[in-house]
Amino acid sequence: WAGQLDVEQSAKKIAELIEAGANVFRFNFSHGDHKEQGDRMATVRLAEKLARQKVGFLLDTKGPEMRTELFADDAKEYSYVTGERIRVATAQGIQSTRDMIALNVAGALDIYDEVEVGHTILIDDGKLGLKVIEKDIAKREFIVEVENDGIIAKQKGVNIPNTK
């Protein structure tokens, strides 16, 4: 569902699905807020009444995730060029700057010890690759080399392949 929900029409269509054998409806909590999801569930509940049949809900919740932090200088994005060296901070509660990308790790998990020199940090679905070339134990930061020209914006997803 995208945009404004026509509850009555949607409930009728969902009731048809129930009558055709659908018995579970999945709600993806990676998209939309709790109110939107609640409205969708209420629509399915209305469809249950129309179809005179109960169904189950499958709640697909987001697992732990890492994102780039907000930018300290209100920039909309930062550009990087291949070979450039910057830092990646693992401490929680700090903001990113042009020279230091701060990570927001769900549950404030400490990832520093899991990442090793040679690992790649991928930002925004791999649009920017960063190779860990050194670890700063005192600051719990990574010194990284930019692997490809790229632009990142705030609060983009971060993946670190080959880590726990």
Automatic annotation (TrEMBL):
InterPro entries, A to Z: Pyr_Knase (IPR001697), Pyrv/PenolPyrv_kinase-like_dom (IPR015813), Pyrv_kinase-like_dom_sf (IPR040442), Pyrv_Knase-like_insert_dom_sf (IPR011037), Pyrv_Knase_brl (IPR015793), Pyrv_Knase_insert_dom_sf (IPR015806)
Any matching Pfam family: PK
Pyruvate kinase barrel domain sequence ranges: 9-164
Metabolic or biological pathway, per its Swiss-Prot or TrEMBL entry: Carbohydrate degradation; glycolysis; pyruvate from D-glyceraldehyde 3-phosphate: step 5/5
EC number annotated for this UniProt entry: 2.7.1.40
Keywords: ATP-binding, Glycolysis, Kinase, Magnesium, Metal-binding, Nucleotide-binding, Pyruvate, Transferase
Keyword Metal-binding: yes
Origin: domain of life: Bacteria
Cofactor(s) named in the record: K(+)
Molecular-function annotations in GO: ATP binding; kinase activity; magnesium ion binding; potassium ion binding; pyruvate kinase activity
Family listed: Belongs to the pyruvate kinase family.
Name this polypeptide is given: Pyruvate kinase
Gene symbol of the encoding locus: pyk
